[in-house]
Specification:
Blueprint lengths: L11 E2 L2 E10 L8 E3 L4 H9 L4 E6 L5 E5 L5 E4 L10 E6 L10 H5 L4 E5 L2 E11 L2 E10 L20 E11 L4 E4 L3 H10 L3 E6 L4 E6 L5 E4 L12 E7 L9 H4 L4 E2 L7 E9 L2 E8 L1
Antiparallel strand pairs: 1-2, 2-6, 2-7, 3-5, 4-5, 4-7, 6-10, 8-9, 9-10, 11-15, 11-16, 12-14, 13-14, 13-16, 15-19, 17-18, 18-19
Bound molecules: 2-acetamido-2-deoxy-beta-D-glucopyranose (7 copies).
Length: about 290
């Protein structure tokens, strides 16, 4: 069947449209920043439609509603015409929809360049892809940074064309000293750290406060399995990695383990050493 019978509702706010499909965000690359409970599908979708930074909302049949800001989500499971047990659905915000309604939902959603032009993102486009036999919608961003290393939600390090990168995951940080920054998305928080030479780590527990931790001001973190948030408490962590051009093959689990790296030379600390016990990473910084 080539016709996607999944446009359940369209809400138009100026030229943008919300296109609703069945599916759910892939948890490991998903960083929602607003959670509502007791909202039906229509109201949840409207919350996203009327919020400038929101590009996607997720709801299920128990009234659970999440809003995602631009840059904070890259993969959505595509349930096609199957209802998941929670009747999960995702509403995409499409900024540049075709002038007239298309016959097929796909034509309203896929392959359209949505001009965004803020929060370090120029545009985004939605495509369908298959990973290990499962169909996904992927949200592909065009970033203003062009060093090739800014797809930070992707758990695989990309090291080819850049000298530093960020890693993003769910964890409980250990850090006493931090400064606070008000952000519009998790992606903003990551970009701040990436751009600021003294920043080593950022985290968000309560949106919209991004906590910024300098080199030397953390003793590590404890990984947590990615999960849908409960209450308005999130545990998102990002760490900077200044590439040594040897460990590009390392993934996030092995990156900070038993190795010593030279961070940005502008900083007070020459190197740090990581060690792992279970899901806890402990760091020791060595001053110049
Ligand atoms: C969704 O909730 C809103 C606000 O409570 C209500 O006005 C609307 O009728 C509800 N829609 C459906 C389909 O239940
Ligand atoms: C399932 O979800 C659709 C929206 O995606 C909604 O219209 C329908 O009422 C839901 N059914 C149940 C049983 O919640
Ligand atoms: C809706 O999602 C929330 C959060 O993941 C979950 O706790 C709840 O059980 C889900 N509801 C259904 C009906 O699956
Ligand atoms: C990356 O590092 C190399 C070697 O230090 C340097 O030559 C190059 O200019 C750097 N590239 C960027 C984009 O900073
Ligand atoms: C890092 O910790 C030192 C004290 O150990 C403190 O002086 C400095 O302000 C801290 N930096 C930030 C950004 O919190
Ligand atoms: C955090 O504070 C405790 C005592 O309150 C101290 O022992 C520890 O060294 C501090 N850690 C950092 C990273 O500043
Ligand atoms: C991460 O890398 C290590 C060593 O390179 C490897 O043993 C491990 O299987 C990798 N883990 C994943 C999840 O790919």
């Amino acid at each position: 069947m080539c016709v996607l019978l999944l446009v359940l509702l369209q809400i138009s706010i100026s030229s943008s449209k919300m296109i609703i499909v069945r599916g759910a965000p892939e948890k490991s690359t998903s960083y929602p920043t607003q959670l509502y409970t007791g909202l039906n599908y229509t109201t949840c979708t409207s919350k996203c439609a009327s919020s400038d930074n929101c590009i996607l909302s997720y709801s299920n049949s128990s009234g659970y509603c999440l809003l995602y800001a631009v840059g904070d989500i890259i993969l959505v499971r595509n349930d096609q015409d199957i209802f998941s047990s929670g009747n999960e659905s995702v509403s995409f915000k499409i900024l540049n929809s075709p002038a007239k309604c298309a016959d097929r939902a796909e034509d309203m959603l896929l392959g359209i360049t949505n001009e965004y032009n803020k929060n370090n993102i120029e545009s985004y486009e939605i495509q369908v892809s298959e990973i290990a036999g499962i169909s996904y919608y992927s949200i592909n961003y065009e970033y203003t940074f062009t060093d090739g290393c800014n797809n930070w939600l992707n758990p695989t390090p990309t090291c080819q064309n850049c000298n530093k990168t960020m890693f993003s995951f769910s964890a409980l940080p250990s850090a006493n000293e931090s400064t606070s920054l008000i952000v519009t998305s998790w992606n903003d928080c990551l970009f701040y750290c990436y751009s600021n030479p003294t920043c080593f780590m950022v985290y968000i527990k309560i949106f919209p406060t991004c906590k910024v931790v300098e080199y030397g001001n953390t003793t590590g973190w404890t990984y947590r399995e990615a999960q849908m948030p409960v209450g308005n408490s999130f545990l998102y962590m990002g760490v900077k990695y200044v590439l040594d051009r040897i460990s590009c093959q390392f993934n996030i689990s092995s990156l900070y383990t038993g190795q010593t790296y030279n961070p940005d030379s502008k900083i007070n600390y020459m190197q740090f050493q990581g060690s792992t016990t279970g899901s806890t990473v402990s760091l020791i910084f060595y001053p110049w």
